[in-house]
Amino acid sequence: MSVAADVALPEVEAAPNPWLVTFVVMLGMMMSIIDSSIVNVAIPHMMGTLGVGVTEVAWVASGYAIANVVMIPLSAWLGSVIGRARMYGIAIVVFTIASALCGVAGTLGLLIAARVLQGFAAGVMMPTAQSILYETFPPEKRGASMAVFGLGIMVGPAIGPTLGGYITDNYGWPWIFYINIPIGILGAFLVPAVLRDPPYLRRRAKAGGDLMGILLLATGTVTLQYVLEKGEDAGWLSADWVVLALTGAVLALAGFVVWEWSHPDPAVDLRVFEDPSFRAAALVNVAVGVGLMGGMFMLPLFLQQMLGFNATQSGLALVPGALATAVSMPICGRLTDRTDPRVLSAFGLVVFAVSMFLMSRLDSRAAFSDLLIPQILRGIGMGFCFVPLSVAAMSRIPKERMGQATGLFTLTRQIGGSLGITWLASLLGRYRAVHQADLVAYVSPYSDIVRARLAMAANGATAMGLTPAQAQGLGVGRLYGQVMHASVELAFRDMFLTLFGLFLASLPLLLFLQKRVQVDTVIEPVQHAE
Q1: What CATH number should be reported for the domain holding residue 484?
Q2: Is the pLDDT score of 517 beyond 60?
Q3: Cβ distance 407 to 72 under 8 Å?
Q4: Burial of 181 (0-12, 13-18, 19+ CB in 10 A)
């Protein structure tokens, strides 16, 4: 008998099929992505059921967003404490339970608390899903893996309002949460059966090694997100609490950076930003977040305020863009595996910019068909932005830091989205005020056009039996309404042109991306905690 025969070789567990891993991971991620936007169309129904106003019910969305942004950068730390696969499974279970609580909530307080719980779980699932997918596929297929991940990121926010509107109108708003329950149960059973932690992931010997860093991050992100959510209503820096909160957020986040950079075992490893490719991709990713979330905020406003669409029609108008993204992402994924990602990212930024330029040419007479080409181009542009950026950002990150990198990369997109919504909402009001002042300056009683408009309105009102004074007042009111409508129309045009300029201005950053994706990433030996 040979010596080799006497030695008991350890059994090596076969790696699961990468597409099975993808299916399991996407179950949780799609729930979290869709739920970030699905509630928006149900807000009026929640107000009626719970008997609350807009300010109070807005916390249903704000609570989710704030909890989400807190957990995104901490997901890698949490995975190192309890294990990444186990953490993902727990997050799915928590999200499912929170969804059930949202559906049965009879008070606003319980609904907000359940939404915050959902946000915590979603903040864990999103970056963890990206790191799992990136590592599951071989290097030559990582573009395809990021395309699959990107489908959820890009298509989910577009599906959410349409799906939420249909469910709310036909079954009631609690069902937008109940639909998560069977998906969550399926995911909870499949995660422990399919997902495994890779051997290079370091497990922490104790959970509290960097409590100060965690507290500084949580304080800074919660405060900043709260200011971004509520600052517009308070008048920004004209409100004392906004100044104090913003100062506190800046100090906390600055302290967090200094603390984490010098900590021997940080909860959030900021050293991934030392890689120039990751740093450049993260900056462009902020612009992508502005375009994705800011655009999803602004487009329905344009469709409803300027074109007179209802909520369902607005959702349907966004579907071509989502379908274009769904088609373009797999194509871009295959191209990313064999093409310079800078070229593909530049193509995506330019196409998105062109779509915004075309939107800036539309006015209140635009029809559904006029939106088709700009929305398709927007979907293609976002697809070609996301995939190569994600692959280029992670191309030189060691695998043991992959969880940290994906969490921070996701955070940059989330911050870009929050800043984008706030920035665009503020700009819209500013542009509208500027155009209104300009147009009013041309409304003169000595203008032949103005006098003709007033006379036409007065004649029509007099024919209806109104007195001359009433007819004149009606004419002035109609003229003022036309001025307001024109100022809003011009403001939206300026908004789209602003996004056009933003994406073009991001092009030079692509020069700092990794030219070609490395075949593999060198893994340094990792000491596992006992």
Answers
A1: 1.20.1250.20
A2: no
A3: yes
A4: middle
